[in-house]
Structures are given as structure tokens and as C-alpha cells.
Queue: 2 jobs
Job 1
Amino acid sequence: MTTQATFPPELEREIFETTAICYPDVILTLLLVCRRVHVWISPLLYRVLIITAPRSTEVLAALESKPEIALDDAVRHIFLHDISRIEDSATLLTRCTGVRSLSFGVANLTPEFLHSLRLMHLRKLCIDVPYFAYRLGWSWNAFRHTNFSSLTHLAMFQESVWNEYPDWSELDGLDSLSSLTHLALCPALANWILHPVVKALPRVVLFVVCAWNRPKEFTFARYRLSVVEQDPRVVLMAMTRQHEEDWKRGSWGGDDFWVRAEMFLARKRAGDVEATCHLIDETVESI
């Protein structure tokens, strides 16, 4: 007669939760194992929320219909882009106080939406610069708000058409981000502010200028980004992976652009990459 091996409940739970986090595609299957595993794993269904058009309305309504779910404990990452019901998203954010990573690009932002961030302790934030700064009539001094005091990673991009950017005198609020160590910019924005930002933020260990599927942007970007040849913290990245895909990968513990840029700098420090090389070109196929 053989006896079936059993694990202590704490270890069993850790095994299932680790499996779910490392392989999120199997979460639905794990929910069917047994009742106790269902209880352990269910919150991980909401660990990473991606809310985008055209199904944003349905997703938000579904979440609102489940008040029994402790979203403040379950949700850690939210990707919120191109949604139609901004009021519902603000309500959702007030329930997700445990969020540590937020990416949003929303056309009809309201002050209430941004005020909902006050309950969070964000570590990573990705924003669409024109809407964030201008649709609300905000100045860059908004970064002095305590909402952003815990930020370590800030990415500022341009999803909408915008041809004007403020000068550094309007961006000096960035230096109030005392926890900031990583800053990413799109090439168009970097052309305007990278020089003064690099000088003003000595605590930042990594500056990344990112272009998704548009490597030619670096042709004009490098013309005004000679700072990359002087500061080893600056990395240029031409990527094929789309923003949403890259963000999702990082949220589940994978190698997002932050991780890949850090690895690139580590290789430079180790002498495996030429000191004069600043470009990670992921658009070039490996032979």
C-alpha cells in the first residue's frame, strides 16, 4: 500500500501561487483543481488589469458588478488606455489602492481621475504627456504632489499628435521626485528636455529614450541628443514589441524595456559592450 505525499498547506499554496504568477495563462486551469486552490488563486485573476477599447465598457462594468472582490489586495498593475467611461475608471481606481504600476493614456481626463491616485503608492507610472499635462491645465509642478512621492520609474510618451512641449522651467517639478531612479521618454519629448533633465536629476541611474516600431526617429533624435555621448546613464532603444505587450510582460515579472536597458548598462560596465555604444536596436533580426 502506498501513501500519497502531502505538503504543508503554506507550501502548497506557495507552489500554486508561484505557478500562477510565472505562468498566468494556466490560472483558469488551476482554479479547477479544488476549492482551496480556487480561493488562493482567484485574486491573481485581477493582479494585472488591461482595460482598453473596444471592450473597456464591458470590463469596467464586470468589475463594478463584483463588489465582493477585494481589489485593493488583488490588483497590482493597471493598463488603462482609450476608454470611453472615464468616470467608471476613476471609481475603479479608488478600489485599487494596492496598485504599484499604472499606465494610462486617456483623452478625456478629469481632475477626479487623477485625484483617485492619492490612495495609491505608485512605484511605476507611464503617462501620455499631452493629455496628462495640458488637458487638465496642469503644469509640471504637479509632480510635486505627494501622489508621486513614491515613484521610482516614470515613463512619459506621446500617443496623441502634439507638436509643443514646455521648456525646462516648466518641467522642474520632476526634481521633486525624491524616489525616482528610472526615467523614460519618447524621442520627440527627449529632443526637448533630455539635456536639462539629465543634468537636473543626478539620482536617476537610467534614462531611456524609447521608440516602438519607429527606429528612424533616432535619426533626428540623435541630432539633438548629443548628451548620450557624454552620460553613460542614457540608453536609446528601438523596439519591435508594442507598449501594451511590453508592459504586460513586465507586470508578470518578465523582461520589460526597463529590465533590458538595465542589462545593457550592466554589460557595458562589464566591458561586454563598447563604452561608446548607446543604442539597443531590437529591430535588427539576429542571424
Job 2
Amino acid sequence: MAFYGRSHALRPLIANQLKYNLLSNEKNFTKNVLKSILRRNSSNIKLSDLSDRYKTQFNVVHTASSVEPHFVFANNELDLSDIEVYGFDYDYTLAVYKESLMYLIYDLGRKVLIDKYKYPKDILKLDYIPDFAIRGLHFDIENGLLMKIDSFHQIQLGSVYRGLTPIDDNEVLNLYNGNYVPQKLIRSKAGGEQLPMKQLNDLFSVPEICLLSNVTEYFIKNNIPYHPEILFNDTQVLTDDVLRQ
């Protein structure tokens, strides 16, 4: 089988580098072969010749069957001897949490709302809903809406909730003049000022979102006037209170 164009000559070499993470001396050999291909008539170079040169140079054949499934592969350009300090993320790396922790955070937060902020005691009847929310959702503080916004700042229609109630897509489009959210509304700047939208993406966001949504739903169904921003700030503060207990 002959190479019939320069692009075809490059493909096996590039694929080989990506697949097997070639060592530096192998890379130098590959560069030399590429230069040879570009200088000469590529139609005269056969794949078998290139393969033989590679095997002769390194006396090794990489095959999928020879890869140890329990090996850990890393960037070979990183010299661990140059690293003096290793850091590890705490949550889910050094510490693994059980699902019961989410219930505990929710229950303690609910208690703080009632005892410290004097919310109605009926909130004690609002149970934690484990499958209601996920980490990474955004909350529109002014309008009191929970939603999913993708990496292109597009509101995912069908994901917008007020309390536990989904909001109609047309209402969302009218409220935001479309489904695009400007970056300035969701990306914080230096100074730490509160933005109109807050992403809830840490470990404790799921029970926090559930409590926020449950209380919102309770206020709406019982015709109790409330301010979304105050409710949001109360639930944000109570998370810190819970963690200090």
C-alpha cells in the first residue's frame, strides 16, 4: 500500500502519536520521517517501509492487547521530581459523602430558617426531594427562577422553575427577550459584587436549591407575599450557619 499524498502520509504518524503518547526520542524520529516524506516523492514511500523503520528504531510494537488495563497513563512531559507540593481537593477526593449528608444539610437549614429568621413553622413539613435538582443550576435572584444555562449562555427551555412549578417556554422567552443570557449577568468580576444570577455549583447546592424551591412553592400556594432576593440571601447565609455547626 503506497502513500498517494502528503496528507495521507501524515495521518498514521499523527494517529500514532495521539494513541501511544510517543517519547521524546520517538518524536524526533517522527519529525525526521516527516521531513523525508515532504522532501521526496511521497508515492514512493510505502506504509510497510515506514512501519519497519519505526520497529527497527525502537524494537517495540504497540498493540491494544499489550496495554495493561490497570496502568495509569499521564503526560510524559511532566517531571514529578520538579513538583514539591501536591494538593488534593477535599470534597469527593479526600472525603466521600453519603446521601444522608444532603438530608442533614436540608434539615438543619430548614431549622435555621424557622429558629433564626422566623419563617413559618409549616416549613417543617416540606421534605427534601433528592432528585429535584442537580449541581450547576443558575438562580435568577430578582425573578426567583431556577434554570439550567449551557456553556453558550443559552437558557435551556423546559428547565426553568419557580418553586417546584415549571415555567412555560413563552413566558421565559418574553421575560428574557429570548433565551440568551449576557455574560455580565452570570460571570462575576473583581470585587465580588452580587450578580443578578448565581450559579449553585458547590457540594451543598443540591439541598440548598431544594429548600429554596420548597419554600418558594409554599409561599406561592399559600398566597404569602415574599421577595425572591431576600429568600435567596437567607438560604445562602443559612448554608454557612449549617457548616459551622
